[in-house]
Amino acid sequence: MTSQPIFSNKQKRIYLYDRDYCPRITIMEGAVRSGKTCLNNYLWIKHVIKYKNQGLKFIMTGSTIASLKRNVLDDLDAIFDLDCRLNKHNEFILFGNTVSCFGADKADSYRTMKGFTAHGWYANEITEHHINSVDQAVKRCSGGGARFFWDTNPSYPNHHIKINYIDRDGEKLEDGRVHIKSWHFVLDDNIFLPKEYVESLKSTTPTGMWYDRDILGLWVSAEGMIFKDFDYSKHIIDEAPDELRDYFAGVDWGYDHHGVIGVYAMDYDGRAFRLYEIAEREKGIDFWLNIAKEIKEKHGNIPFYCDPSRKDYIADFKKAGIVALRASNPVVEGIGFVASLFKKDRYSIVKSGNPRTLEEIYSYRWRQGGSEEAPIKEDDDAMDSGRYALYTHIGKSRILKPPKNVKHTEKTASKVQNLPSW
Question: Which of 109, 107, 134 has the alpha carbon at shortest distance from 123?
Answer without folding.
Answer: 134
